[in-house]
Amino acid sequence: MILYPAIDLKDGNCVRLFKGDMDQATVFSDDPAAQAAAFADAGCDWIHLVDLNGAFAGEPVNAAAVEAILARVRVPCQLGGGIRDMATIERWLEKGLARVILGTVAVENPALVREAATHFPGKIAVGIDARNGRVATKGWATETNVMVTDLAKSFEDAGVAAIIYTDIDRDGAMGGPNVEATAALAKAVNIPVIASGGVSKLSDLVALRDAAPMLNGAISGRALYDGAIDLSEALAALKVR
Asked: What fold characterizes domain 2-238?
C-alpha cells in the first residue's frame, strides 16, 4: 500500500485544515517545494497535492507553488483543487503532473471525467469527498444528495486511475480514519481507492492496510508534520501486507 504524504496549499503555504474549514488552517511550511523534497528524500513514491484556494475559486490559485514542487522533485505528484476543464487538465499534465484529481466536476460534469480519462489514460483520478456518506463539492462547501458508492460505481467503465476518498469530518482532526467506510468502498468498486482523512498514527495506516487488501494507498498530512507518524517507519510498514 502506498503512503501519499499530503501538501495542502493555501496562499502559497503548506497547511492543514481542520475538518475542511479554511478558517482553521495551520501553516506547517512557507516553502512547499522544500517540504516536497523532504518527502521525496525520505523515500516516498508519490506526493499528494491540493490547491485549497483553487477548490473554492474553481480555478488554479497556487500554481506557482505547484510548479516549484514539480521543478524540485522527481517522484510522481497528483494534484486536486480547481481543475474543472480540459484546458486546465492538459496544462497541468504538460507541466509534469503524473495525475490530475477531478472532484467537483465528477458530480457536475461527469462527461468531462470520461473525456479526460480517454484522452489521458492512467492520469485522471476522481476525488470523492463526503460527509455521512454523501458527496460534498466546491471545496467541501456544498453538500449533495449523491452517495459515495453510487458516484464511484458510475466511473467503473471510464478508465479512471484511482478514487481518492476523503471523509471530511475526519480530515485534519487526528481522530483516526473511517476504516469501515473506506474498506467498504474499496471492496465495492474495481477502481483503486486511496484513503484520505483522519490518519493520526501508524496503527491507523496498518488498520487501513489490513481492512482492505485491495486498497491502493493512504494519504497523511498533519500526522507527518506533527511527528505523530514516523515517515520511515510508516513506509516500511506499508510494504508488508
From this structure: TIM Barrel (3.20.20)
